[in-house]
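Study this chain:
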Amino acid sequence: MCGIVGYIGNKSVVDILLDGLKQLEYRGYDSSGIAVRCPDKIKVYKAVGKLENLSAELMPHRSEISSATIGIGHIRWATHGAPTALNAHPHTCNCGNLVLVHNGIIENYKELREKLTALGCVFKTQTDTEVVAHLVARKYAETKDLTEAVRMATKEIEGAYALCVLHNDEKDKLVATKRNAPLLVGIGEGEYFVASDVPAIIKHTKKAMYLADNQIVTLTRNSMKLIDENGTELSQKVEVLPWEPVALSKMGFKHFMLKEIHEQPDVIRNILVGRMHSCDEPVVLNEVNLTKETLKNLNRIQIIACGTSLHAAMIGKYIIENFCGIPVDVEASSEYIYRKTVTDSHTLVIGVSQSGETADTLTAIKQSKAKGSHILIITNRPDSAMAREADSLLSVNAGIEVSVAATKSYIAQLVSFYLLAMYMAEIKGSLAESDLKSLKAELMQVPQKIEQILSNKEQIQHCAKVYANTKDFIYIARGINFPTALEGALKLKEISYINATGYPAGELKHGPIAMLDNTMPVLSILMKGSVYEKLLSNSEEAKARDARMIALTNSKDEKLKDLFENIIEVPDVQELLSPIIAMIPLQLLAYYIAEFLGKDVDQPRNLAKSVTVE
């Protein structure tokens, strides 16, 4: 799990590896390590914690490894075994000749470990990855060819993996392969890079080849050979990477999260360009292949996602049902994949993922695709594994998101759902033209309204200082903004570690009201519309139990000042679009509370940006 970097060329490898790993820090990790080829042997260095600890570990050895030009590196997020230096990658076989790094999970590692132990292998770590090192080493003893050893070993492995492998006996070779985990090869002049994501290599090259599942690439300084699982040589599809290194800069902001929150108005504009030309013209989604006949034959839609994307999906359900009259189910991918897949050709399955590599969601869409369902993917990564499975694709165009806590990708997913729902409604003729025109007109004004919030953050900052030391927090809402309450609570949990929970406001009296007293903040997402009065009543119930009340509202109602201790005002917006506007202050509130508490905002503990294991 987490980040892989590899290099073979003529430059000093240590700084390339360290910098590449630095660019992958946003994915979350708890230990790190590198292996470099020195004249006599491959040397391995590891450390627990942040990369500066690995740099400190390397300092006494810099002179002896500075001339190395081949190496692999890894940042680890612990799955099997505690985050210790011993369990950190790279891992070796017993003799130390073979060294590898691995992302993913080996599902049959226990069976393989028992088999390899019986053959004389001695295990030093608690990881599943060490099994692969021993297995490839055993195959190498038979074949004396590293590529063939990797090919044979992967036939016995079950699960997800991206592997990068070196061997002492093959001094000018690096072998990499993958299955259900991302991996690409960057192509330079007389040099090659291997990485689990683009940021690790973008400053060195913009030419790359994405590996497909079960493909194996063998790299020397001057050659690249690609084969499939049967050993058949394949043609290489080289692509131009779309990102500039400047995307990884904080651009003067204290944290990436704050920068990404401020990018959201432009993210929305970027999504709308080319897709919504005016209020009077239909929505254009060129890669969404849903015809009138397809929509006519649909009897339901399933949306599958995890985490923040799941909350976007819940709002997607609300607006698609409202606009199109098609029943929509939303389910966490991690639950979906472990029950019977009840889909068919009359079901549209929408997978939502920032990275497009989320393991549970990828598995879910593959299961649905096998049942004949049309697969539509909403992702920030049109180059991802999930996008490659899609029958229809809706790229959210948010740009790279470095902070682990999703902000701009969430807003981009929301806007994409609005576009999709309007697109489908136009094809079906299920929404009045006047309503569509009104929605489009206001959606085009949303970026300016967000900019108003970003320019007037004083209420939010004050609120953050007042409530930063609370141990618990409750968010309540009704209707379309219930998922907003869930996402607001998630943001606060993720980066401040405060126990925050979102509830449908009407459910307070069915249990959670027992927690209310004068130490409990309750934030009401009180946007004008069909449930405003109901939510106001629920807020009064909470106030009667001495809860500390906060309102996030676009209402100018004077009586709110008597009910709420703090009020965060937002620009007026019609109810159907209010989740976009309401989320911005909640992101900022979470950010300022975490920043006030001195938390590691961009890299919160225990979290990873791209969850590539189930």
User: Anything to note?
Assistant: The chain is about 35% helix and 20% strand.
